[in-house]
Fold DUF4439 domain-containing protein.
Amino acid sequence: MDVVGPRANGEIMALAKQASADWVFGDPAREQWREMRKKQGEELQGEALRLCGVDASGNTPSSCNVGYGDTDLPATGNADTLLEHTVAAADKVPAESVDLIVAQAIDALTLSPVDLAPITETVANAADTEAAHDLLARENAMYYGLGVALAYADSDLRERVSELREASHERTAALTRVLGPVEGAGEEAPVPAAGYEFADGYNEPANAEEAAQLVKTMQSDLVAQWRYAAAHAESAAWREDAIRLAAHAQWV
């Protein structure tokens, strides 16, 4: 069975080995980064084992070796480099593993303020364009909902709402660049509606406590939507942008 049994996925293991190198050889002063990369390497090893499946006895086949051997990679120590590796690997790993590697890139970027300046390229893929339009509409709705919450907010929540609205404005500006004029598209980026109705599961607040809960729920849902968009991107350009935008939404 060792000759013909399943082997650990090469792309997953390459990412795992780099994560391990970042942990072992990373800058000792960046303890949070190194510990995250250690955890991510273990997650990737676990994913490789999961992809191998189990034998009739319920055990992982012995042919599925997830050890690192004598591989000696230099540490990257850089979330932007991890983002590049992730975008390159996303089209090569099994589709069921994309969520994991994208989530790791997002989490790594959130260890520091997320720069949206690199987002400049107009997305051309039709499905990705639709996703970007949807996220822009969600950002517009989020901005409106934060304004509603602001009317009932105490001083702490007002500060939080101000931070979230500024961050949403930054993502909206980035999305406007992504959805910039495309020849023959005949579409314009959606603008905020004059008013919004609260969807099922949301209630207009009546006091500061309910306003705080509304803000928390809206923010959590928005982050989840951004993470989903990043994992389900079709083009490399939009995947990279969506990962940055998801990290930006999660960091604030």
Observations:
- The chain has two domains: 10-109, 126-251.
- Helices lie at 10-25, 31-52, 79-90, 98-109, 126-150, 155-178, 208-231, 236-251.
- The two ends are 50 Å apart (CA to CA).
- Residues 126-251 form a domain with the Ferritin fold (CATH 1.20.1260.10).
